[in-house]
Every structure is written in structure tokens, then in C-alpha cells.
């Protein structure tokens, strides 16, 4: 075992890359749940975004168009969930699970012709002398634009929820949709917009996996990232800052276990590979012991159907 082979600089830089797809998906799901909707289809939307983004980037040679297509694909799939749950009032849990299964099957079908193809690269931003600084240059100023976009979106999400009228309306719908409806808010419209945003974010996260982190198309390549994103929303107590912390914690453990494998740690590879998921489960169990859903900070009407009354 040679731990000296592990570079702290590359470890932290890789952590940010590994955390970005989960961070994007979790921020989207945070907005969805703040509106009182529980969408368990994050995994399906991520894998759909992964293949939509990959295929578009390969066909056009432009990764930016790939990310745009991924966001559109994720949003369109999420609106299927939105129409079923908000218009036809289907069960949110069952519909979300069906969305995941549908997304996995659809992506497998669409991705058959893209196995083994390398997509156009997403270049790191050139920040001049800042990128050449020791440690900080590689860790902070050595990433692609999507990493910085994800960090900006953390701040933007916090600001939207806490400092804007639209954010207040969204939270009001999530806390009590009947009271919000009585005040004249269009509950279904607000929730559908939140669901579409959540789908677009999940699609972006999926595209980051297939265009940057891997980068290639592999069937089922999300490998549970959507479920981790759902868990991180709970871990964060429905706060954007907590989502950032949770995503980076999971990303850090993921990268660390890969580095430990490379360093020859005397543990079975299977144990190291499952460690990020085990730690996530352990954190959720500890947090759940704190008390009820309300004490964790969940919206009061989370997962409840809205029946308009006249």
C-alpha cells in the first residue's frame, strides 16, 4: 500500500468533478420538493439527459448544445410525471418509480448506436495566471464551465427561495397548497414549473456524467446517482447549502475510494466501491433519528395531492 501516490490536489479537484452531476440533480429536486412534490424519477431523468446530451454533442460536435438538449430532454420527461400527478392525480411515488424505469429503458434504446464513441471534449476555462497558482489554481480555477455553473446555482437557488416573491410563492405552495390556492396562487402551474426545472437540472447532471466525467455512453451509467441526489435533499434538510455539502461529501468519498484502490489498500474492491452508498445511508439514518419530517425541515405538504375546490 502506497498512500504517497495519492495527490491531495488531484483528490480535491476530482472531488468537485465527481460531485457536480449529483449537485445539479439534487438542486433541481430541492426545488421540486419545496413545491410539495415528491419525484422519485430523478434517476430516470438523469439517464435520459445523459443519452440526449451525448447523442446531440456527438452529432453536432458541440458539447454546449449537448447540455442544452440534456436539459430539454430531462424537462420533457419530468413533465410527463407532472401531467400524470398534477392533472390526472396519479400517485407520486408510483409514478416517479415508473418514470425511472421508463427513463432507463428509453436511454438503453436510444444509446444503442453510441456505445464506444468518444464525445467532443468540454474544455476547462482558461483563467490565465490564476490557473497556474499552486494547489489553488488546479482546485479552484482549473475546471470546466459546468462546475462553476453548479456552484452559481447553489447561490441562485438560495437567493430565489429566500429573497424573491416567486420563491415565497413556491414555498407557500409546498407548505400548504390549500392556503396558497385560497390566496389566489395557481398551485398546479407553480408545481409544474418546479417539476420542469427539476427535470432540466437532472438532465444536466446526467449529461455531465456522459460528456465530462466518464466521458462515454454506457448503459445504466448513472449507477444510482439519482437516488443519491434524492437522499442528499433529505440530508441537507431542504437547504441549498446543505445540498452542496452533501454532494461534495459523497463526491469526496467516491474519489477517495478510487484513490485507495489505486494505492493498493488491503480491502476488497467491492467494500471500497460500496462505501459512498453505505456512508450516505448511515448519514440518513442518523438524521432520521432526530425526529419527524417537520423537524428535519421538510415542506408540510410534501407528497400530498392537490384537489382544487371551487
Automatic annotation (TrEMBL):
<feature type="transmembrane region" description="Helical">
    <location>
        <begin position="189"/>
        <end position="209"/>
    </location>
</feature>
<feature type="transmembrane region" description="Helical">
    <location>
        <begin position="135"/>
        <end position="161"/>
    </location>
</feature>
<feature type="transmembrane region" description="Helical">
    <location>
        <begin position="245"/>
        <end position="265"/>
    </location>
</feature>
<feature type="transmembrane region" description="Helical">
    <location>
        <begin position="64"/>
        <end position="84"/>
    </location>
</feature>
<feature type="transmembrane region" description="Helical">
    <location>
        <begin position="271"/>
        <end position="289"/>
    </location>
</feature>
<dbReference type="GO" id="GO:0005886">
    <property type="term" value="C:plasma membrane"/>
</dbReference>
<feature type="transmembrane region" description="Helical">
    <location>
        <begin position="6"/>
        <end position="25"/>
    </location>
</feature>
<dbReference type="Pfam" id="PF02653">
    <property type="entry name" value="BPD_transp_2"/>
</dbReference>
<keyword id="KW-0812">Transmembrane</keyword>
<feature type="transmembrane region" description="Helical">
    <location>
        <begin position="96"/>
        <end position="115"/>
    </location>
</feature>
<feature type="transmembrane region" description="Helical">
    <location>
        <begin position="221"/>
        <end position="238"/>
    </location>
</feature>
<dbReference type="InterPro" id="IPR001851">
    <property type="entry name" value="ABC_transp_permease"/>
</dbReference>
<keyword id="KW-0472">Membrane</keyword>
<dbReference type="GO" id="GO:0022857">
    <property type="term" value="F:transmembrane transporter activity"/>
</dbReference>
<protein>
    <submittedName>
        <fullName>ABC transporter permease</fullName>
    </submittedName>
</protein>
<feature type="transmembrane region" description="Helical">
    <location>
        <begin position="37"/>
        <end position="58"/>
    </location>
</feature>
<keyword id="KW-1133">Transmembrane helix</keyword>
<keyword id="KW-1003">Cell membrane</keyword>
Amino acid at each position: 500500500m502506497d498512500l504517497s501516490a495519492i495527490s491531495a490536489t488531484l483528490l480535491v479537484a476530482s472531488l468537485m468533478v465527481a460531485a457536480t452531476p449529483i449537485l445539479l440533480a439534487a438542486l433541481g429536486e430541492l426545488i421540486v420538493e419545496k413545491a410539495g412534490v415528491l419525484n422519485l424519477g430523478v434517476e430516470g431523468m438523469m439517464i435520459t439527459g445523459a443519452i440526449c446530451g451525448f447523442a446531440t454533442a456527438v452529432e453536432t460536435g458541440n458539447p454546449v448544445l449537448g447540455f442544452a438538449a440534456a436539459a430539454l430532454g430531462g424537462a420533457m420527461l419530468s413533465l410527463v410525471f407532472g401531467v400524470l400527478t398534477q392533472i390526472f392525480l396519479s400517485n407520486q411515488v408510483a409514478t416517479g418509480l415508473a418514470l425511472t424505469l421508463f427513463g432507463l429503458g428509453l436511454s438503453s434504446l436510444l444509446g444503442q448506436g453510441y456505445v464506444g464513441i468518444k464525445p467532443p471534449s468540454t474544455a476547462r476555462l482558461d483563467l490565465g495566471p490564476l490557473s497556474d497558482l499552486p494547489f489553488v489554481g488546479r482546485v479552484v480555477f482549473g475546471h470546466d464551465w459546468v462546475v462553476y455553473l453548479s456552484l452559481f446555482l447553489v447561490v441562485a437557488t438560495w437567493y430565489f427561495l429566500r429573497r424573491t416573491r416567486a420563491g415565497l410563492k413556491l414555498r407557500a405552495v409546498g407548505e400548504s397548497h390549500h392556503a396558497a390556492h385560497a390566496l389566489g396562487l395557481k398551485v398546479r402551474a407553480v408545481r409544474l414549473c418546479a417539476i420542469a426545472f427539476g427535470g432540466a437540472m437532472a438532465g444536466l447532471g446526467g449529461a455531465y456524467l456522459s460528456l465530462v466525467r466518464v466521458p462515454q455512453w454506457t448503459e445504466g451509467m448513472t449507477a444510482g446517482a439519482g437516488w443519491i441526489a434524492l437522499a442528499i435533499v433529505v440530508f441537507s434538510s431542504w437547504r441549498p447549502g446543505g445540498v452542496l455539502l452533501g454532494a461534495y461529501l459523497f463526491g469526496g468519498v467516491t474519489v477517495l475510494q478510487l484513490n485507495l484502490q489505486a494505492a493498493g489498500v488491503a480491502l476488497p474492491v467491492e467494500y471500497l466501491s460500496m462505501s459512498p452508498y453505505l456512508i450516505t445511508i448511515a448519514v440518513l439514518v442518523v438524521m432520521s433519528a432526530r425526529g419527524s419530517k417537520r423537524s428535519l425541515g421538510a415542506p408540510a405538504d410534501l407528497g400530498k395531492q392537490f384537489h382544487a375546490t371551487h
